[in-house]
């Protein structure tokens, strides 16, 4: 969807304070003049980004601001304008996009990782594991123990759905957490999550944010999008995430005291 040509309002990241025994911050994403034009005009950008590895970044922007396209670009699934400079996980894009695709997983994208409502949780997980396994390896039926081992890092203390449950019967939080579980089965270094506010209720959405924080705490870089421009400000965080706001012009807002 086209939008007016924004002014690049990228804010330089806060200098990292290091001391004896403190390793310097590494960055999962660095971008300069990152932009994408389509047949109908500008999709997003230009934007400068410096996003830290092993942290949660929240991309906020209204419908049509290019959030989904930006996330897919960072995951190596879309090719930006030729004038863009972009490195993700140390790989230059789009030249090394295959390496980024292997290291990045996606969740929450309409038309890409949507769940089949008529399939059980167990069969949904088995299908994902079969896709990830070598062609010669048969993946057995997924029992509750196998699902627990896979899903526990995502669901945490939240009760797990039964593998016999049909996806249709899952509430919106469990459906989103299942999509995250399927994405993390790839064991990615980078997880990008679109449209977190498809979980409509603010309080219930906070559960998803807390679980994304938990995933990032394990060392996986997480970049997630939401349509609300004040989502970060009105959400309670264990640690303030980094922010990227896509409105009249994309600009990055580093988290306070980020290291």
UniProtKB/TrEMBL annotation:
Q: Where is the composition biased (Polar residues)?
A: 1-10
The protein's superkingdom reads Bacteria
Q: What sequence ranges are listed for the domain AAA+ ATPase?
A: 53-248
SUPFAM superfamilies from the UniProt entry: P-loop containing nucleoside triphosphate hydrolases
- The entry's protein name is AAA ATPase
What Gene3D superfamilies does its record include?
P-loop containing nucleotide triphosphate hydrolases
In this chain, the stretch annotated as Disordered covers 1-25
Which GO MF terms are attached to this record? ATP binding; ATP hydrolysis activity
What is the protein's species of origin?
Cellulomonas gilvus (strain ATCC 13127 / NRRL B-14078)
Q: State the UniProt keywords alphabetically.
A: ATP-binding, Nucleotide-binding
Q: ATP-binding among the record's keywords?
A: yes
SMART domains assigned: AAA (SM00382)
């Amino acid at each position: 969807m086209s939008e007016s040509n924004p002014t690049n309002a990228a804010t330089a990241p806060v200098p990292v304070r290091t001391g004896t025994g403190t390793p310097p911050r590494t960055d999962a994403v660095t971008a300069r003049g990152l932009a994408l034009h389509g047949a109908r005009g500008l999709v997003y950008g230009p934007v400068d980004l410096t996003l830290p590895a092993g942290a949660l970044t929240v991309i906020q922007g209204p419908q049509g601001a290019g959030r989904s396209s930006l996330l897919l670009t960072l995951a190596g699934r879309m090719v930006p304008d030729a004038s863009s400079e972009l490195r993700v996980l140390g790989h230059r894009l789009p030249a090394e996009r295959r390496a980024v695709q292997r290291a990045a997983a996606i969740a929450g994208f309409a038309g890409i990782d949507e769940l089949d409502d008529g399939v059980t949780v167990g069969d949904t997980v088995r299908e994902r594991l079969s896709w990830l396994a070598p062609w010669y390896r048969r993946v057995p039926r997924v029992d509750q123990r196998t699902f627990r081992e896979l899903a526990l890092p995502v669901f945490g203390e939240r009760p797990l759905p039964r593998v016999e449950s049909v996806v249709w019967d899952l509430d919106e939080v469990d459906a989103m957490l299942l999509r995250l579980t399927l994405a993390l089965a790839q064991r990615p270094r980078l997880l990008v999550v679109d449209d977190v506010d498809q979980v409509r209720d603010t309080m219930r959405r906070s559960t998803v944010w807390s679980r994304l924080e938990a995933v990032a705490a394990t060392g996986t870089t997480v970049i997630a999008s939401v349509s609300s421009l004040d989502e970060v400000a009105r959400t309670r965080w264990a640690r303030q995430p980094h922010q990227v706001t896509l409105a009249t012009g994309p600009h990055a807002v580093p988290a306070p005291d980020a290291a």
